[in-house]
Amino acid sequence: MGFCQPKLRLILSIFLLAGLASANIIKDARLCDVSPSENEIAKESERSRKAQVNVDPAGYTLSHVVILSRHSIRAPQRIDNKLIKTESFPLGLGYSTKIGNRFSVKVGKIWREFYGDFVKNTNIRQTWIRSSSYIRCAETQQLALGQMLPPDDEFSFGHPTQPIIAIKLPIGNDVNVETCDVPAPQSLPELDELTDPALTSDGFSTFGEFVKFVTDKTGYLPNETAYFEPIIDGIYCSKYNQLPIPRWAEEKWRSLDFAMRKLSHDYWINEIPYYGNYIGKFLASRLSTFANGPYQHRFSFLSYHDTSIQAVLKALGNDPVELYPGFLAALHFQVYRRDSDGELFVRAMYHQGATPELEYRDAEEIRIEACPFPSCTLKDLASKLSHIYDDVDRSPCSRIDFTALL
């Protein structure tokens, strides 16, 4: 209970009139004009007025949505102690942070507003929820979907948040992200002459020139990729967690942001076909299950990683660097039933995720090059997704340890 409660206001006034209030009470009294809770309500109300709402195309009815999303804001996987201190991330390296958890809650509310009546008519039993084996993905789902799918009507039990069970495979057994031992490239000389407006705006003529600048600042070798995770990813995560970053990084942020978007693809380029192949099959399975199966779920959720989304974007004819999936980016495959004949089609919408200011980018429709809406049926798209990266050699992939599931 704060000083801004009505009875305490009266008591405080008596103290003030009697001249007995301390300096601390006077200081707190000045906050009573607009309390923190009132500030939050005002901000939430303002954001709600601007909330984006999904618009159904004329002649079609939304029937199911498959959402492949990235986890929320995390700590770096690795750090360079000369730049970033471990204690800056008390929940652990590679895990969701407190800011990330709060952002998950925010995005869950945005998704709820985005789907309007469709989500309001959905209960938790009409959802299918799966997470990457990485804990940060399950944590993100639990927080975001708890807000997106609050217990309404007959499912209400006096609690505002829906408990969410995100089904997660044991570490080492997720074919979508970790069962293939494919090494990252030790160097990327083909990027040296790469140009981009972000680089030129910061005074760099090529990507190689930017890398030389960064490695001179940090002591790494410019012809190796060892700087990517502790430096590029480390600074990137620090900024999104609202922590201070080196002045040179702030001044060259556009280039550093481009490096993150580019290297998140090229550093993991050897793995993308392996995990993209399985992610494609998962997506195809969810679409086909809705069309043909006995379980008529309204939502299917898969919580994974930036490279997971990049692999699908690339396979569907989109630029995975330009459309880099920021934290909690979400690729929505919206299943629409054509009113005239009941045929099912799929439209792709894309939330590109968080900005460094912790805003959430509006969703935009993206074109599926080989299967554009509305000329491509669900069956056709499912067939294409099930065969992306089909020529990948799985000899480096380990067998699943089924005993770990017990």
Name the helicity range: 25-40%
Annotated CATH homologous superfamily of the largest domain? Phosphoglycerate mutase-like
Radius of gyration equals 24 Å
β content, as a range?
Answer: 5-15%
**What number of domains?**
3
Q: How many H/I helical runs?
A: 13
How far the N terminus sits from the C terminus, by CA atoms, comes to 47 Å
Average pLDDT over all residues: 86
Low-pLDDT regions:
1-38, 44-49
Description:
With 406 residues, this protein is α/β, with parallel strands linked by helices. It has three domains: 6-49, no CATH class; 60-181 and 271-405, Phosphoglycerate mutase-like (Rossmann fold, 3-Layer(aba) Sandwich), CATH 3.40.50; 189-266, no CATH class. The protein is built from 13 helices and seven strands. It has helices at 6-18, 23-29, 36-49, 98-120, 135-148, 197-201, 207-218, 228-240, 247-251, 253-266, 272-292, 306-315, 378-385; strands spanning 60-70, 127-131, 167-168, 299-304, 330-338, 344-351, 363-366. The protein has a seven-stranded mixed beta sheet with strand order 3-2-4-1-5-6-7, sandwiched between helices. Helix 4 crosses helix 5 and helix 11 packs antiparallel against helix 13. The chain is globular and about 60 Å long. The two termini are 47 Å apart.
